[in-house]
Task: inverse folding
């Protein structure tokens, strides 16, 4: 310290505090223009259960305040201070002081709990009755001497901070009224604060919007100063783009999943129609693969870096989709949005991004491929839970949006989110599904964390069907020139032919029976040659459909096409029947049929997936539980029905 150098003695904190107190009596100076403390409200406070008890203690201290400031800092000095020292009561909520302290200690990066504790101590000091100079001395001890601008700012707005915080923490309207009555009895200064609060709540919509836009501009300017952006970034660049006001009601898709922006439907060349009794078929041929462009070469696994090759054991080369994304995925930190058909190898692209992260410093399949790197892969879902210690010991977590939202939702708690450096979102087109809001909030939370902490987190989105991929890429902050990749059906490794069957029968019972008959015909046409996966829209319908096909096959004596007598598959299925807990599945399994839905226990679902993957089960009827991220060897896929039961909206949703 300078004083110790001048006096050539050691100065204790108590002696230094005495020097500061004596220095307050010096009046022959003028207050220099100083950079005033910024009044932006940034950050999210951590809410603790102890706050209610602390509020009761604070209320007792507040009652002792009568008239602050009359014997404190000189009125002329306060009059000469910048107008920026005045604090708008609109900005003060229950956590305003904690946010200001977090800003002041941004360089030291103090813990949120420590910031909360310090805020409560400062609030109690401000609430004490006494001279401003004594309060200032105590604040200097608590907040350190380099926080003098903040201390001066708090003293200037001492009454506002104490009483507005007290009002914001009131548990109900009754306590708030009691505090307001107490303020009215303490003098004109307190009454003026109440008058400002009431005037703020009565201001016009136009004035509120103007004040909100002003606060956004101030925060954008603060972010610009912190990141070193120039004026162009502030005025018309990325920063202001994140703070524009949106009319969310006008942007909402009220039709949800029924929204159709494509007004015209044009069939591919070679398509044709078949008219049958009670229904009509539309056949759409598969697209022919595009030939390799001049100079286009597939990347050989042997040409990958030596440390990356073990993850692709058994593969000779990357396919066309993976080759085009290879450079960006493995050698750059760019955010990526990949839209490619099912079976195009999106999982291998995700693997490349994981290898990139490993080079810098799905359960089962990923675990085997990452054993060489000593990486631990765990599942976190409704069936599998992990302790806090297990999460911290795991390098890759396979989870659902809902589960991750639950454990990371607490505001200000970055225990888990600060560990994440790469977020891969498979089936990102679910943003348009009823699960979309959860997924959107997770992404928005990550983007906000990147903006506030300035720590890069890579976002990778994968989808097989995404028409508005440019909009989603912008939402993910993807560079459209470097990180956006879109491939049509001509890039499918296995060409996809489609058939659309429209039932023309009007009576519900006849329509239901005809759908089962058509389903039986399509299944028997490939029985014994290829496996069939049938998707239905309810759990009960899985059993009904499987039994209808089995019973029809028994009646027509075609059951041998699905499972031959004395075959090895039959012996395998019979040996596993005793392990099944669901009676419906146990009844169907011995005939070569199986069902799969979320109502089955995990062991039954896993058994069905394993038997179908090995080719023991010929026909699998499932709900959407197998539609996302599960790869099964079905050559024929049937989607039965277009009505989904939704009790919240209407009985049947087309």
Result:
């Amino acid at each position: 310290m300078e004083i110790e150098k001048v006096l050539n003695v050691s100065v204790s904190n108590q002696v230094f505090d005495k020097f500061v107190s004596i220095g307050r009596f010096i009046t022959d100076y003028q207050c220099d223009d100083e950079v005033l403390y910024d009044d932006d409200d940034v950050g999210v406070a951590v809410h603790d259960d102890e706050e209610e008890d602390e509020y009761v203690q604070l209320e007792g201290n507040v009652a002792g305040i009568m008239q602050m400031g009359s014997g404190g800092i000189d009125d002329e000095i306060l009059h000469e201070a910048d107008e920026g020292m005045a604090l708008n009561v609109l900005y003060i909520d229950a956590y305003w002081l904690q946010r200001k302290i977090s800003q002041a200690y941004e360089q030291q990066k103090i813990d949120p709990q420590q910031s909360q504790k310090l805020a409560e101590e400062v609030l109690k000091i401000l609430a004490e009755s006494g001279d401003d100079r004594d309060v200032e001395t105590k604040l200097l001890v608590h907040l350190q001497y380099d926080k003098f601008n903040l201390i001066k700012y708090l003293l200037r707005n001492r009454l506002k901070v104490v009483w507005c915080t007290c009002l914001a923490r009131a548990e109900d309207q009754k306590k708030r009224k009691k505090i307001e009555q107490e303020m009215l009895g303490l003098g004109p200064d307190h009454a003026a604060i109440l008058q400002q609060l009431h005037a703020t709540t009565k201001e016009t919509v136009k004035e509120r919007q103007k004040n909100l836009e002003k606060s956004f501009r101030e925060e954008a300017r603060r972010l610009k100063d912190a990141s070193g952006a120039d004026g162009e970034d502030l005025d018309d660049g990325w920063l202001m783009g994140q703070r524009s006001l949106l009319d969310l009601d006008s942007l909402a898709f009220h039709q949800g999943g029924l929204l159709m922006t494509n007004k015209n439907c044009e069939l591919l060349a070679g398509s044709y129609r078949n008219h049958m009794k009670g229904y009509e078929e539309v056949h759409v041929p598969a697209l022919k693969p595009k030939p390799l462009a001049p100079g286009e070469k597939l990347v050989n696994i042997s040409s990958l870096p030596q440390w990356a090759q073990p993850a692709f054991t058994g593969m000779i080369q990357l396919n066309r989709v993976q080759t085009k994304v290879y450079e960006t995925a493995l050698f750059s930190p760019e955010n990526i949005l990949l839209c490619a058909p099912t079976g195009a190898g999106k999982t291998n692209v995700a693997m490349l991004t994981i290898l990139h992260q490993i080079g810098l410093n799905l359960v089962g399949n990923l675990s085997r491929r990452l054993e060489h790197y000593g990486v631990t892969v765990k599942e976190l879902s409704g069936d599998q839970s992990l302790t806090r210690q297990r999460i911290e010991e795991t390098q890759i977590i396979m989870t659902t949006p809902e589960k991750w939202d639950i454990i990371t939702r607490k505001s200000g708690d970055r225990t888990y989110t600060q560990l994440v450096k790469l977020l891969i979102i498979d089936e990102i087109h679910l943003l348009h599904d009823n699960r979309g809001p959860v997924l959107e909030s997770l992404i928005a939370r990550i983007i906000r964390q990147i903006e506030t902490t300035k720590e890069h987190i890579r976002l990778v989105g994968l989808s097989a069907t995404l028409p508005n991929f440019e909009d989603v890429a912008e939402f993910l902050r993807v560079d459209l020139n470097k990180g956006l990749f879109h491939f049509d059906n001509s890039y499918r490794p296995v060409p996809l032919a489609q058939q659309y069957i429209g039932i023309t029968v009007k009576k519900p019972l006849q329509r239901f029976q005809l759908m089962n008959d058509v389903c039986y015909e399509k299944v028997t046409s490939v029985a014994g040659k290829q496996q069939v996966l049938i998707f239905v829209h309810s759990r009960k319908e899985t059993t009904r459909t499987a039994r209808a096909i089995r019973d029809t096959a028994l009646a027509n004596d075609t059951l041998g096409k699905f499972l031959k007598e004395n075959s090895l598959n039959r012996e395998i299925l019979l040996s596993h029947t005793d392990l099944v807990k669901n009676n419906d599945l146990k009844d169907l399994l011995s005939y070569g049929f199986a069902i799969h839905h979320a109502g089955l226990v995990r062991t039954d679902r896993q058994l069905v997936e394993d038997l179908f993957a090995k080719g023991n089960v010929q026909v699998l009827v499932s709900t959407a539980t197998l539609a996302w991220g599960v790869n099964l060897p079905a050559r024929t896929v049937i989607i039965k029905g277009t009505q989904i039961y939704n009790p919240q909206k209407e009985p049947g949703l087309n």
